[in-house]
Write a structure and sequence with these properties.
By secondary structure, the protein is an all-alpha fold. It has twelve helices and two strands, in the order αααααααααααββα. It has a two-stranded antiparallel sheet. The radius of gyration is 25 Å and the shape is globular. InterPro entries: EmrE-like (IPR037185), Mg_trans_NIPA (IPR008521).
Length: about 350
């Protein structure tokens, strides 16, 4: 059962990486058109979205068949797979750090699969109810809520939009997501193989937690990707998400109960290798720059300098010259007052 869950998770993550590259390819094609259509009118983009849904469904099913501590770290396969596919089909450069990162990711995955907790746990509604009111989970949830509220205060009231704050909020929500996903997936699996669990209120409570936590995760993650480069967000988010998911699996589902010290150590080393692999694959990737128009002083009569003036996207002027004309001074003065 565990092996089937692992295969589902790996295949799901590979399908997700294919979908991301298809979406990227559709965006590149649209950008080359003289009159580009909206991306949501592209058939290729919708194919990518469909494959994304298939991959996430595979991950969802995997959580019902195997422990969280085994499935969550396998997200590194999506990053490694995406790097391979982008080299093969999008003709992107293959760097030495990519090869090294993929090697670490695959080595980490091998250790995770072999040394993750080998427990078989039937996830029924009664099991979830028992864990839900356990003192370990109650203490964990109280601490999470406190930390979440503190970070939200700094984000909303103090305007601190540091990447670590945003991705920690994502990770705190992710722990609730993986708990609820495993609960819902496990109860559906139990309903198919044994007795229906869909009549218990806890099933619908977990569904609500799953949907709400996913929605707010996406909100904070989108905010992080808007403010910071994807090459920085992806590895940090992977580390934070995986650590949070593993912690949730250990505390809520008690997945490492009775595990030997050496097993735990090798498992954590596997996690470290997968983290390092993701960091190396995403490190120093070519950044996308938006082209901005500028004025070259050398093209202006009477100006003999090569300095450039960046345009002001919020105003009508294209910046100010060094000696400044009255009109540009007045415009910049107005903007300062605003």
């Amino acid at each position: 059962v565990h092996l089937f869950g692992v295969l589902l998770a790996i295949l799901g993550n590979l399908v997700i990486s294919i979908s991301l590259n298809i979406q990227k390819y559709s965006h590149l094609q649209l950008a080359q058109q003289e009159h580009p259509r909206p991306y949501f009118k592209s058939v290729l983009w919708w194919v990518g979205i469909f494959l994304m849904a298939v991959g996430e469904t595979g991950n969802f099913a995997a959580y019902g068949l195997a422990p969280i501590t085994l499935i969550a770290p396998l997200g590194c396969m999506s990053v490694a797979g995406s790097a391979i596919i982008s080299v093969m089909f999008l003709k992107e450069n293959l760097r030495a750090s990519d090869l090294l990162g993929m090697t670490f990711a695959f080595a980490g995955t091998y250790l995770l699969v072999n040394f993750a907790p080998n427990i078989t746990q039937a996830v029924s509604a009664r099991t979830i109810q028992y864990y839900f009111v356990g003192w370990q989970f109650l203490v964990y949830v109280i601490l999470e809520i406190l930390i979440f509220c503190i970070l939200l205060y700094f984000l909303k009231r103090k305007g601190m939009t540091h990447m670590v704050i945003l991705l920690t909020l994502v990770a705190l929500l992710a722990s609730l997501t993986v708990i609820s996903v495993k609960a819902v997936s496990g109860m559906i699996t139990f309903s198919v193989t044994n007795k229906t669990q869909l009549t218990y209120p806890i099933f619908y409570i977990m569904c609500i937690i799953m949907i709400a936590s996913c929605v707010f995760q996406v909100k904070f993650l989108n905010q992080a990707t808007k403010l910071y480069n994807t090459t920085a967000v992806v590895p940090v988010n992977h580390v934070f998400f995986t650590t949070s998911a593993i912690t949730a699996g250990i505390i809520f589902y008690q997945e490492f109960r009775g595990a030997a010290f050496l097993t735990v150590f090798i498992y954590l080393f596997g996690c470290f290798l997968s983290f390092l692999g993701v960091f190396l694959v995403t490190r120093n990737q070519e950044k996308e720059h938006l082209q901005q128009s500028y004025i070259d002083f050398g093209d202006i009569p009477g100006k003999q300098t090569s300095d450039k003036i960046q345009p002001d996207s919020n105003g009508l002027s294209y910046g100010t010259l060094p000696d400044g004309s009255d009109s540009t001074k007045s415009q910049s003065g107005e903007k300062k007052e605003v």
